[in-house]
Amino acid sequence: MPQTPLTGAVRRLARRVDWYIVALFGAIGVAALVPAEREAAEAVSWLTRIAIGLLFFLYGARLSPQAALDGVRHWRLHLPVLALTFAAFPLLGLAAELLPDRVLGAELTAGVLFLAVLPSTVQSSIAFTSLARGNVAAALCSASFSTVLGVLLTPLLAVALIGAGEDGGIPVGLGQLGDIAVQLLLPFLAGQAVRRWISDWLGRHRTLIGLCDRGSILLVVYAAFSRGMTTGIWQRVSPGRLALLGVLAALLLGAALLLADRSARLLRLPREDRVTALFCGATKSLASGLPMASVLFPADEVAMTVLPLMLYHTLQLVVCAALARRLSRTREPAPSAPTSAPPPAPAASTPAPPPTPPRTGRR
């Protein structure tokens, strides 16, 4: 069948669309149309807990401790990435608290702070670094190290920055800390413990594991927004407030990209390492953030809390993909060799005389 200009344009558009993002917003739509209630809501809640434990078990089983330790050796690259992820970014997030309460509200402000303390995303960081011709091995080490630290640091920073409050706060208690340990830390450590026996199997079944990862996250999104529908989430988030939240997410992404680039240049890192610092320092993990939010925050507040993360994640995919394509077309020239005297010009076109035959003695 001959291809028309319209079908060609549709195919090009389909290749550019991130269908996982479409599925995430589709899960929100399903939750809006068919929210889980009563017994169904209880079943979805238990399934979500199992899915979160499975997610962090798989994270632990796939992340190599050696890759994280290798990151320590390349400290000039990974130290600024971690400082941006767990220090500078939270300070940027605190700027949201300077806004009046009527602008965002306590729950969305808590969501911005929660976004700010999340670790880097592994898959997207590596993909963007590879596309931009950066240091892919260093990106793997940096993102892995960030994820390992995030399992411990993100809940602690979230509790410290957001605090315990009635509106948008984290209820700190032994039960909450126990949930963090049981649903996040223990499955992650269990995955690390059995990694050497199952890592080969996981490597051979990457498609199945990817479907399990994404399906679990879609279930977490559905559960959060299903509960949000029963508590009137869209009555609490006006279109104007949602647009302001998008602008704030864009400003955070722009500031993070700028800080990552400037810090890498200040340290005089080579071009490949600067690309790695750019994408590992500015991206945030949706895959880690959604399950953590379901454990840290009350069920009625999860949907509002993860809205900033979902908007930021969508923006980072679009902006970083365009930035990576642009960087892939630009390469710094190689350093020139020391200047030396030019080689002597070849002789003029006068042909060389034929060699003189050797003299022979008289007979």
Task: Enumerate how many helices there are, as a single number.
Answer: 17
Largest sheet: none
Through-space gap between termini: 92 Å
Number of strands: 0
Order of helices and strands: HHHHHHHHHHHHHHHHH
**Which whole number gives the mean pLDDT?**
80
Our Rg estimate from Cα atoms comes to 27 Å
**Structural class designation:** mainly alpha
User: What percentage of residues falls in helices of 4 or more residues?
Assistant: over 70%
Shape descriptor: globular
| Fraction in beta strands | under 5%
Describe this structure in words.
The protein is mainly α. The chain is built from 17 helices and no strands.
Features:
single chain; 363 residues; mainly alpha; 74% helix
Brief write-up:
With 363 residues, this protein is mainly α. 74% of the residues lie in helices and 0% in strands. Residues 333-352 have low confidence and may be disordered.
Secondary structure layout:
Layout lengths: L4 H12 L2 H15 L5 H24 L2 H9 L1 H20 L6 H4 L1 H11 L5 H10 L4 H27 L11 H20 L1 H10 L1 H25 L2 H4 L2 H28 L4 H12 L3 H11 L5 H27 L35
